Amino acid sequence: MVDLSLLVRYLLNFKMVSYAPNKLKRIVLEVFGGCNYTCQMCPQSNPGRGKSFTRKMPLETFKKILDQIIPNYLADDPVVHLEGSGEPTMAKDLPEYIKLVKEKNLKCFIYCNGARLNGKFMEKVVDAGIDFIRFSIIGYNKDKYKEWMNSDNFDLIKQNIRELKKYIKKVGSNCNISTYHLITDNENIDEEIKLYQSNVINELGNNTAYIWKMHNWSGNYDNPNPRDLTERKSCGRPFAPEITVRAGGSTGRTAAVVPCCQTLGPPNEEKSILGHLDTQSFEEVWFGDKYEKLREAHVRKDFDKIDYCKDCDFLWQNSEVLVWSNDKTAKLKGPLGFNSEYIRTDYIPAK
Predict the structure, then answer these.
(1) Listed residue (144, 140, 157, 207) closest to 36, CA to CA
(2) Half-sphere exposure of residue 116, counting CA atoms within 13 Å on the CB side?
(3) Of 218, 213, 193, nearest to 294 (Cα)?
(4) Which residues contact 78 (CB under 8 A, 6 or more apart)?
(5) Which of 35, 53, 59 is nearest to 45 (CA)?
(6) For the residues of 306-319, what is the DSSP string, one character each?
(7) Rounded distance, CA 193 to CA 175, Å?
(8) Residue 21: per-residue pLDDT
């Protein structure tokens, strides 16, 4: 149920709501905050995500959040993501979360490492109605994969993708598959693109793939392959029609709302909490003072006032961070699954 008192405050107080969109196109509801991998470039293991964030979001809480947002705050044709910054396949009942999303006639996406996505579990995920699955494959061969993802699963992941594609075809699912890759050496970009293409992308065939430069997780990760520094500008996320909700949060809490997935890990993740939807309403958080102060700082380019933003390399407007894709609709500032009308920086208001 919508909190009417907050909604009235929202409608009457222009300063409070001047930057808050009132319709969401993208909802990121992290089902599981932990991970079964210890990737070198991920704050989940380097330096290690706080224990209060690595929990599972209760199914009842997940449903309550969807019920708060639907139907009052959804734009047309929205997407619900179940990964956040954790590994969604760690939730044994992941298909139940997917079913809840599909019961509301929404698109459902997951980004995963894919190690557990096989056999009967994979079939249940597809049968639940998943629309899109992205596999993270960092490292263009077995050795590089093990170096960066700390696992010998390079061949297993490719086999899981083949198995998934066969099952999708068998049952007539509309699920789409994609792979995600990172450049591991900025001095060797062209060669790494060729190796990703020959060892993974072309071998798997007819799915979309994206190769990016690494990022620094809002300053939480000392990136050995830094992005080029340019003028700092807002990434657009505080104003974009999307919300990111963690499985965990502060000690003893769940459903922490954060500005984006980039604040993963210490010290910035705890600092970036804008509220908790386990006890607070959507309106209290989305139209609340913390969120509005963040938006105002981005409008004024006062990034140094925000600890979890000031060192983030998504503020550096570098057009070359997406180095290759076979997806002709891929956009630097837009999330997957949307047309060219959804570019995050387009939502930045004038001062």
Answers:
(1) 157
(2) 16
(3) 218
(4) 24, 25, 26, 27, 106, 107
(5) 35
(6) -TTTTT-GGGB--T
(7) 26
(8) 80
Question: In degrees rounded to 5, what are phi and psi of residue 157?
Answer: -65, -45
- Residues 314-328 pLDDT 10s: 998 777 799 999 998
130 phi, psi to nearest 5 deg: -55, 140
Task: Give the residues of the chain that fall short of pLDDT 50.
Answer: 5, 8-17
Residue 178 has a CB neighbour count (10 Å cut-off) of: 19
Q: How far apart are CA 188 and CA 182, in angstroms?
A: 12
Give the separation between CA 91 and CA 188, rounded to whole angstroms: 37
Q: Which residues contact 120 (CB under 8 A, 6 or more apart)?
A: none
Which pTM value belongs to this model?
Answer: 0.93
Are β-strands 208-212 and 176-182 bridged in parallel, bridged antiparallel, or unpaired?
A: parallel
The predicted pLDDT at position 206 comes to 83
pLDDT, one tens digit per residue, over 283-304 is 999 999 999 999 999 999 999 9
**In 3D, which of 77, 175, 96 has the Cα closest to residue 135?**
175
Q: Where are the alpha helices (DSSP H) in 70-118?
A: 94-103
pLDDT value of position 237: 95
Residue carrying structure tokens 């699955």: 133
Question: Which among 74, 135, 66 is positioned nearest to 97, based on CA atoms?
Answer: 66
